[in-house]
From TrEMBL:
Keyword match Cytoplasm: no
The reaction(s) this protein catalyses: NADH + H2O = reduced beta-nicotinamide D-ribonucleotide + AMP + 2 H(+); NAD(+) + H2O = beta-nicotinamide D-ribonucleotide + AMP + 2 H(+); ADP-D-ribose + H2O = D-ribose 5-phosphate + AMP + 2 H(+)
CDD domains on file: NUDIX_ASFGF2_Nudt6
GO MF, one annotated term: NAD binding
Known role: Mediates the hydrolysis of some nucleoside diphosphate derivatives, possibly using both NADH and ADP-ribose as substrates.
Principal EC category: hydrolase
The protein's name in its UniProt record: Nudix hydrolase
Cofactor: Mg(2+)
TM region positions: none
Keywords annotated in UniProt: Hydrolase, Magnesium, Metal-binding
The EC number(s) this enzyme carries: 3.6.1.13, 3.6.1.22
Length: 289
């Protein structure tokens, strides 16, 4: 073993679940202190057969970036309070996953008892000044479910309180944003209006206007007829309003293997069956009718 590596203290680290290493540096450190520890640690990790190294630098430790890159680390991703660098030590194929590559958004379809759909005109963005009436849309926040984000966006933009019902469809668009490197996924969600919330109270900074529009009028807007994707989505909304047999995906609340809350989206009929038959006494998997 390298003599210098034996005598130099190592960086504090933890193993990950995939034969790699996690290092989380939060306290100020000089490059004179950091570089010997990093080099000694790399020797030790190679001797132990470690594969991927995750080096997390808290905001304020920018002085350690260049030395880490000089030892073979590369940028992985950054958040407001840290930068993540990675290095692959193994001769095996590099299996470090790429940075998150998808953005999740929703479009909200809310229909009242008069078969009028909730629509808005936006301030700013690609629809500004077009006169197009569109469904409320938005991006899901970190840690937020699709169903919860849909409810939030509708209330924020229009003041209408709703409950999530189904995902009617979703679409994906690759190389869509962030210098054309990321994928945008949009879920078309149906929501039910809560009693007593018929009156619209639009958001003032992002929404120019909001109203209830007869669904046929919404579908037949020139924009929706000329733009294929919008025509497809508008026709799904129309079909759903006419034929309740059009069944989407509903939620089944569950947990991951580590106990975190999670939501399974599946055919509404089956979701209703799963929700109705769940419980500690149930040990078998229900089958749909």
């Amino acid at each position: 073993m390298d003599v210098e590596a034996q005598e130099t203290p190592l960086l504090q680290w933890k193993p990950d679940d995939y034969g790699g290493v996690k290092v989380n540096l939060t306290e100020p450190m000089t490059t004179e202190d950091f570089v010997p520890k990093l080099r000694a640690s790399l020797v030790e990790w190679r001797n132990q057969g470690k594969k991927g190294i995750w080096l997390k630098l808290a905001d304020g430790l920018e002085n350690l970036i260049a030395p880490a890159k000089a030892e073979g680390f590369k940028y992985h991703h950054a958040e407001s309070d840290y930068l993540m660098l990675v290095s692959w030590l193994s001769d095996l194929h590099n299996t470090i996953p790429a940075n998150a590559s998808h953005r999740i958004g929703i479009a909200a379809f809310v229909l009242n008892s008069n078969r009028e759909v909730l629509v808005v005109q936006e301030i700013g963005g690609p629809f500004d000044g077009t006169g197009v009436w569109k469904l409320p849309t938005g991006v899901i926040k970190e840690g937020e479910g699709v169903w919860a984000g849909a409810e939030r966006e509708v209330e924020e933009e229009t003041g209408i309180k709703t409950t999530f019902k189904e995902v009617l469809a979703f679409r994906e668009s690759h190389k869509s944003f962030s210098e054309k490197r990321k994928t945008d996924i949009m879920f078309l969600c149906e929501l039910n209006m809560k009693p007593g919330t018929f009156e619209i109270k639009k958001e003032k900074t992002e929404i120019y206007a909001a109203k209830w529009m007869p669904i046929e009028e919404y579908v037949n807007q020139p924009w929706n007829q000329e733009k294929e994707l919008f025509r497809f989505m508008a026709n799904i909304c129309l079909k759903r309003s006419q034929e309740m047999e059009y069944v989407g995906f509903s939620t089944v609340r569950t947990t991951t293997s580590t106990g975190r809350e999670s939501y399974l989206y599946c055919n509404t009929d089956h979701a209703n069956l799963l929700n109705a038959t769940r419980g500690p006494a149930s040990t078998s998997t229900p089958t749909s009718r």
